[in-house]
Write a structure and sequence with these properties.
This protein is α/β, with parallel strands linked by helices and 476 residues long. The protein has helices at 25-33, 47-65, 82-86, 153-170, 191-198, 232-240, 248-268, 274-287, 294-303, 336-347, 359-363, 383-393, 423-431, 460-465; strands spanning 90-98, 101-102, 108-109, 115-124, 129-134, 140-143, 146-149, 183-187, 202-206, 210-214, 219-223, 226-230, 288-290, 312-316, 319-325, 329-334, 371-376, 397-403, 413-416, 437-440, 454-458. The strands form seven sheets. Strands 13-8-1-4-5-14 form a six-stranded mixed beta sheet. Strands 18-17-21-19-20 form a five-stranded mixed beta sheet. Strands 2-3 form a two-stranded antiparallel ribbon. Helix 13 (423-431) links the parallel strand 19 and strand 20. Helix 2 (47-65) runs parallel beside helix 7 (248-268).
Length: 476
Amino acid sequence: MSKRIEPDPPPRRRRSSGPPRHARPEARRAAAQNPADDRLAYVLTGLLVLFGLLTSAIAYTMVRSHTFNPVVGIVNYFVQTPQAVFGRDRIYVLLMGLDYDYSANDEPTSKDSRTDKIEAFALDFPTKVIKSVAVPRDMDAIVDGHEDKINDAFHYGGARNSEIVVGSFMGLPQNDRGTYFDRYVVLRINASKDVIDAIGGLDVPVTETINYDDNWGHLHIHFKPGMYHMNGDQAVSYARFRHDACSDPCRIKRQQQIEKLTIEKLKNDKFNDLTHIAQLIDVVRRNVDTNMSPDEMKALGWHFRDVNMADIHATQVPFIDDKVLACCGDVLVPDTAGTAKIIADFTGPYEAVEPPPDPGAIAAVKPSDLRVDVRNGSGIPGLGAKLAATLRKEGYKVTSVGNADSFDYDITQIRATPRTPLAGERVRSDMHLAAATVTPIPLPTSSEPALADVTVIIGRDFAASLNPANAAATKE
């Protein structure tokens, strides 16, 4: 049973951001392993994909309606390929999210900002593969000739200085212009919140009770298990929460959940309503600083508009220890060998996975041809019977209902044999549970017992999808 957790007292503001020096080493390391800070609304790990999808939606709508907006200036009637615009097959982009404090008027401010989010992206045009490497903000680095936290590079010289410090730290090769990155993107405070508001909010399944108030951090979260339609503030607060049993790992899972829901909504909704388009344009204008030209943004957006989510890969720079610097407190000591291996993959050849299945082919699979086993892995009594009844109504042959090997499944798993192609995808579609994973399993040998075509292991996300009464937005 979840219980209310009282917030920690507000730490004293120091020159450098991060956990206080007196924090336990394991707490400092746990916080450092998460690239996003509690005070910074989550930044989408695939934000460059989102940014591209956003600009492509704007470009598509305005090209089709012959509309032009001189403020943003991203629309032309002819969209060039990114290879033609950039003159190469791959570009490297540095993404930075600014930290913030609160002024005497209790308003967020980024004066003397540092970067709470540092992430390098590689966008490969021929394969449409995107890879990212996050750098923890407290990583030990050489900044302007002295040892410091890597997030201080922005404080001393803005985006240009961060490009030099981060690129050198990561060991990236320099391009033909003598720089490490081809472009940069800087996100201001409200970027994530405003994007979610501009696309009309998100439908988010919540699987646990969350009650948390932190007046100093302006964080108020109150959710019960169920489906919620969240606005930007609510989605960002939900993604920032980490005061549950598994702390940062669970927060990362929530951030990834919000990220996926946001990108999927941008991909699936065309946003041809000019009111939404105007809001998206305003988000870019107010919350993003970049040295990309309008033509470059449009080319990226159009090229990656149908990106396969399986072709987005994210990792982070590892570390082996921490230490204390006189200038700025605790820093992380990077794992040099581990970083070199990651960068070798980051800069090496790319290969795309198979494209996602066609929706028409999934719809053509007949439920009456499929045998399904249902296993309850959620720990919530009665879910197996509920799903079995739903599937039988859809025409499936449910051969058995029982418990899974454990009750620790958060996400529903669908395991399908190759007897009927796309059988697992068809079951997922009829469950209306897009986040469920579909995994192929081999057919049994002649000596093994026969398997059902599909085995569904129910997770706690399925329980959340069955609670439409909780779909209303929560009250602060």
